[in-house]
Amino acid sequence: AKRSGRRGFRFYTNDLTVEAAANLALESQLRRAIERGELELHFQPQVAFRDSEVLGSEALLRWNRPGTGFIPPDQFIPVAEETGLIVDIGRWVLREACRAAAQWNAGGARHTVAVNLSARQFQSRGFVPMVEKILAETGCHPQWLELEITESLLLDEDDSVAYALSAFKHMGLSIAIDDFGTGYSALSYLTRFPIDTLKIDRTFIQKVTSDRRHAELVKAILSISRCLGHRVVAEGVETMEQASFLNVYGCEVAQGFLYSRPLTKPEIGLLPRYLTPR
Ligand code: C2E
Ligand code: CA
Ligand code: CA
Ligand code: CA
């Protein structure tokens, strides 16, 4: 912000006050939203590149606000993280996702549900036993749940993250690195933590067929992953060209609008086993 003279400075402080007030209002609305059951989980299918078989889905949070409609997570999760509300919301998300997985897999299917976690949840007391309790209560087998974390969490010096991840691994859950390539990628963490899946960020996938450098980078990520035994999910696949590139270079799993947008829980229940790319 520019502080040009007294007027400019006053304007700047006013802006901050307005923003703080807006966040405060959002916080109390969000608190009520939880109580009133206005939060909803949608699920975006993850499919095998080879034959478009549905392997699982990612749980994505939506706020269905009366009179406004669906509010995307980017508009309220940052406030939930700042205020710590994400701990309660995250617990609700985990329970809903586990409940859905238990329901979809009841007949012997194997549909894995991926859940996004925030750093604040790892810092909350009793996080690991809470996850264990939710699995038991919902009848969700650990193999049906994948936890998505971001690279920045692994750079945290605090060893509570390392402890939690190895505990989750022991329980039989899988761990995915979300938005891979956008953080401070320190490749060493790939060998230090029990990681199963890398999710290549949409910004790389978008340019894979138009920009040689991005293409080479994605090929290199796929080659490293193959050597280290990581499963790779390509995020935000929108075109057939992207899909065939990724398939040729050995990427196994696709998530993106080419196959499906995020769907409601009943819609996932009705999904065919194989999706047709559109
Ligand atoms: P994310 O984890 O990277 O999730 C993928 C986002 O990309 C989703 O946006 C999804 O709808 C969108 N997407 C998927 N395929 C395509 C595509 O082909 N093209 C384009 N343009 N977009 C695609 P969404 O649902 O708005 O979620 C935004 C972010 O909010 C998520 O990014 C995640 O970081 C966060 N989030 C969502 N649910 C939760 C949650 O339960 N807990 C936490 N902590 N964060 C969440
Ligand atoms: Ca994610
Ligand atoms: Ca992502
Ligand atoms: Ca993202």
TrEMBL record:
Domain EAL, chain residue ranges per copy: 23-276
Descriptive protein name: GGDEF domain-containing protein
Shown part of the complete sequence: 691 to 968 of 982
